[in-house]
Amino acid sequence: MRPWQVLIPTLCLLALGQACEDATTTESTTKDWWETAQFYQIYPRSFMDSDGDGIGDLNGITSKLDYLKDLGVTAAWLSPIFKSPMVDFGYDISDFFDIQPEYGTMEDFRALIKKAKELDLKIILDFVPNHSSDENEWFKKSVKREKGYEDYYVWHDGKINADTGKREPPSNWLQAFRGSAWEWVEERQQYYLHQFAVQQADLNYRNPDVVEQMKRVLRYWLHEGVAGFRCDAVPVLFEVEVDENGQYPDEAVSGLTDDKDNRNYLKNELIENRPETIDMAYQWRTVMDDHQRIYGGDTRVLLIETYAPPAYTMQFYGNRSVEGAHLPFNFNLITVPASDGVSASSIKKAVDNWLLLMPAGRTPNWVIGNHDQRRAASRYGAGNTDAMNMLVMILPGASVTYQGEELGMTDGWISWDDTQDPAACNSDKDSYEQFTRDPSRTPFHWTSGTNAGFSTGPKTWLPLAEDYETQNVEVETAATRSHLKIYKSLVALRKSSKTLQNGSTKYAVLNENAFVVKRSLSGSPSIVFVANLGSKGITVDLDQFDQTLPTHLTLKIRSISSTKAEGSLFETKGLSLAAGEALVMSTD
Ligand code: NOJ
Ligand code: MG
């Protein structure tokens, strides 16, 4: 990499104003599987129920692996399937080495892996390193100060208030689901830290036994044949150490909200994004690489969940001397504020903030939804479903789909009485909708029939979303045109196009509402994606964006709203785009 190659993206930003070329992408033709992968997130509780209890399970997933194969996805990552009291729906693990009974057994898990291997699908598990359930044996032993477990969690005596003489929590730190991050345990006469719910106790990463135990978790599931891990809540792994008086310092007030129970009330600089955490991710990478070296097979991947400033997130990739996570998730598109709506300029900013900041030689990735956010079709507008699916599949690198995005599924509405998510249950009837994550966790839509084909039981754990009769696999497979069919064409194009796998990238805001991406590779046809995200029809001049384009482009894939004919030629200089129209075109 020559210094000028790194400079080009920044220079083109300044000089050309709008168009930006990612000159750092190397036109290498040998990509490892994960670099161009189509990842698919399954929320097991809501994907497919095999036994009629209204709760999705492993046998349900196994029965639908053919569907994933048919979609063309490379790897599925499953949200946690481990033994759990389900306070945070599996993100509170009571046994990291066993399966949650309502999801199945170890035998069911092995059958799932076997079937996936037969179909050449990879399975990735959720690794939840920051905390365990308070029902975990480790926690019970730690409460009792059993030998070897005394410091498994972050324990502290708290402070005595000089005025009242009463004991108070060690610091003002707040948990993610409202209220103090400290909980008093009568039996041990100490507080423990929980960055999430009270029942999710933070493991103490300053204890080498904990570090080793969690690497054991990774190795255990690698031996069971998984292709890697999505690592949960990584930026909160380490907190600041106690000061010279043995006290934890308070966080400063952020000024962002007056709500003193809301975690955003504080700056959270002491309990997030610590340097030690980055090193821990590098250590996990070594576990992955060692496993492959010893047992062979394909690369085992690390995907890192990180909502953090880019300067921190990018460090997870590693640097010149050390390998880190294969893919720290890119949440730039997911975090576009819903109030701003998606626009050509917000997309440009999100793309710039990954491609221009990513260390050289690493692989980008694109995420538009997950089980913690409102569904993409609701956040970006149902009319932008195809445009957003096109965007994340045409941009370079790996792409991630949250279950239902291929169907254009929208948020379910959940009453206060039906609310399940602790983030909402810790608030009240009037405000829970601000906090709830239930709307994106409603059951997957397989058919227009009872329970959308998800369950044969009398009741599902969350009610169905209203649009299940139209946005489902059965209807969208039978339709001549559908979001599902467009999604499948996109995945197929990614697989067959050398340009999409290896080409360089140029993109720009064409006018207020239109965004364009061009991928090119010498010796292969270029691919152009253009979308009108606005509510009015427009005509764009792609020649102004890129004068090397031919006079006409062939239409390959069009959004459901488009009336243009696939296979026809369209003029580069005067391309008309209806409101919400999105196109993928080619120079061949
Ligand atoms: C992030 C997960 O995605 C979320 O669902 C969970 O509540 C927290 N981490 C805590 O594990
Ligand atoms: Mg079930």
Q: What report would you give on this structure?
A:
This protein has 588 residues and is α/β, with parallel strands linked by helices. The chain folds into two domains: 353 residues, Alpha-Beta Barrel (TIM Barrel); 102 residues, Oligo-1,6-glucosidase, Domain 2 (Oligo-1,6-glucosidase, domain 2, Alpha-Beta Complex), CATH 3.90.400. Helices cover 26% and strands 19% of the residues. It has 17 helices and 28 strands. The strands form eight sheets. An eight-stranded parallel beta sheet has the order 18-15-14-6-3-2-20-19, covered by helices on one side. It starts with a helix and ends with a strand. Bound molecules: 1-deoxynojirimycin and magnesium ion. The site of magnesium ion has 6 residues, from loops.
What key phrases describe this protein's structure?
about 600 residues; alpha/beta; TIM Barrel; Oligo-1,6-glucosidase, domain 2; 2 domains; 8-stranded parallel beta sheet; 7-stranded antiparallel beta sheet; 17 helices; disordered N terminus; binds 1-deoxynojirimycin; binds magnesium ion; GH; signal; alpha-1,4-glucosidase activity; alpha-glucosidase; EC 3.2.1.20
